[in-house]
Amino acid sequence: MTGCGCFQRFAGDGASLVASLVGRETGWGPRLVGGATGFPHSTVSKVLKRAGLSRPPRPGREPIRRYEWPCPGDLLHMDVSEYVRFKQPGHRVTGDRRSQGHTPDGLDHVHAVIDDRSRLAYAEVVDDAEAETSTRFLERALDFYAAHGISVRRVMTDNAWAYTRDAASPAHSQASRR
């Protein structure tokens, strides 16, 4: 068998059977299988590739946990985002990189509520994220959903401090009873 490559030389010795069995059982790559069996890793690599074992299978992903309530109003998601307010636009708007107009002028807070089932959303831009402001926003949001014929049963927040403060708890529970 002169002139044959290493794969053909070792194939008669059971290399393909041993390499594919070890590769299948252990999930090892060619170098580890070659070290364990005594065959060159290049031979083992070709054998594993031919057997479809050259790449280990992808680990199974955890299934995505999705939840959706059956009726509109069963669950509202409530969140607050902060955005920097600027006095004048920057160079992308003006085209002038020489003027340094990037001085912030405070923060704007966007309160948003989204219905889990219908995806109907209500949002407002306000000056702060204090408990009192959040409570008033929630009352206006509940009125908005009531005007659209949706009675709200649950509100889920991201546990921002404005929602978890002692001052917010009675007001939020009172607003959610409406």
What does this structure look like?
The chain is an alpha+beta fold and 178 residues long. The chain folds into two domains: 6-50, no CATH class; 76-176, Ribonuclease H-like superfamily/Ribonuclease H (Nucleotidyltransferase, domain 5). It has eight helices and four strands; from the N terminus they run ααααβαββαβαα. The protein has helices spanning 6-11, 15-26, 30-37, 41-50, 91-94, 131-147, 161-164, 168-176; strands at 76-86, 104-115, 121-126, 155-157. The chain has a four-stranded mixed beta sheet, covered by helices on one side. α2 packs across α4, α3 (30-37) crosses α4 and α6 (131-147) runs parallel beside α8 (168-176). The protein is elongated. The termini are far apart.
Q: Concise description?
A:
This protein has 178 residues and is an alpha+beta fold. Helices cover 39% and strands 18% of the residues.
First-to-last CA distance? 89 Å
The run of helices and strands is HHHHEHEEHEHH
Weakly predicted, low-confidence segments: none
Oligomer: single chain
Average pLDDT for all residues: 78
Strand order of the largest sheet: 3-2-1-4
The rounded Rg comes to: 32 Å
Structural class: alpha+beta
**In the CATH classification, which architecture of the largest domain applies?**
2-Layer Sandwich
CATH superfamily of the largest domain: Ribonuclease H-like superfamily/Ribonuclease H
How helical, in percent, are the residues?
25-40%
Overall form? elongated
